[in-house]
Amino acid sequence: MDLDSMQRILEQSLAENKPIWEIVLEEDVANRMVTREASMEKMRRTWRAMVDSADAYSGERRSLSGLVGGDGERMRLYYATHESIGGSFTAEVMASALAMGENNACMKRIVAAPTAGSCGVMPAVLIPLWRKEGIPEEMMLQALYVTCAIGSVIANRASISGAAGGCQAEVGSASAMAAGALTYLHGGTGEQICTAVAIALKNLLGLVCDPVAGLVEVPCVKRNVIGAMNAIAAADMALAGVESRIPVDEVIDAMGDVGRRLPVEFRETALGGLAATPTGKAVKERMQKNRKRRRTLTIKDMRWKLTAPVQEPKE
């Protein structure tokens, strides 16, 4: 079965009396012609890489542009010394999303989930929950299979690319994947998982991709925070019995249609939105001058090396 419809995955899950994660696992085994154990082990490596990346965060690191770095640490310091409005768990979710987004901008190892630009959403909700509730690792792997179903359907029916569909396709998709995982981890049914996905996507429908100076930094890192918080809200609504009036597959189709209709300026070209503000343009100009200066210095250094006299070895 192709993973191109949440409704069909749900129907198969109900018909075979298997959870969604089991359907996806069997699909992976069949498609890649690997054993069940090999599939699980690959997912385990992915999960542990995600955890390792979160643990490797350093608030001292800054991106090459200087635009990103330290905010994850600032958020943690804030809720360690103040009473966070949303409580300690949501504060840690926000800090984790910032930290992982900064890891990406600082060229540290991350897990694209589903993309590098949206890498902070899933770990921001899954890792704090795992640690807070002591969830067994096997169950976390099952949740990741659920996210694979969601991501695959979105990729097949719409897009997970900011260049093709705007930030709704990146952070929006990541938020939907995280919402589905959270719903599963809190005992939600297959129907509730689908509802959480639909709600999460609807909430971010039309979100543009407008990276300042073309870098996956501003506003990308902070949008990971919004994606994570949106996932929590969508999961809680689904678990409470709130329904999506538009079926999940139709929501995904609508996202794809909106993405195709977005002007090119709002699809990762850095020609519109925040990238086109006076400050956004000034940042781009500064970055271009810095790159030109570095190139000039590099060329001068190369010329010096070519013309420098060769030192004879001393006897």
Molecular structure report:
The longest helix is centred in the C-terminal third of the chain and has 30 residues, at 278-307. The chain has helices at residues 6-15, 20-32, 36-55, 71-81, 87-105, 121-133, 137-157, 162-165, 171-185, 190-203, 220-239, 248-261, 278-307. It is an all-alpha fold and 315 residues long. The relative contact order is 0.12. 65% of the residues lie in helices and 0% in strands. The protein has 13 helices and no strands. The model has no long low-confidence stretch (mean pLDDT 95).
Structural class designation: mainly alpha
What distance separates the N and C termini? 75 Å
- The whole-angstrom Rg is 22 Å
Biggest beta sheet summary: none
CATH architecture: Orthogonal Bundle
CATH class label: Mainly Alpha
Compute the number of structural domains: 1
Question: Which stretches are poorly predicted, pLDDT < 50 over at least 5 residues?
Answer: none
Write down the oligomeric state: single chain
Q: Roughly how much helix do the residues carry, as a percent range?
A: 55-70%
Q: Strand portion, in percent?
A: under 5%
Query: Any idea of the CATH topology?
Result: 2-methylcitrate dehydratase PrpD
Annotation, overall tally of beta strands? 0
> What's the mean pLDDT score?
95
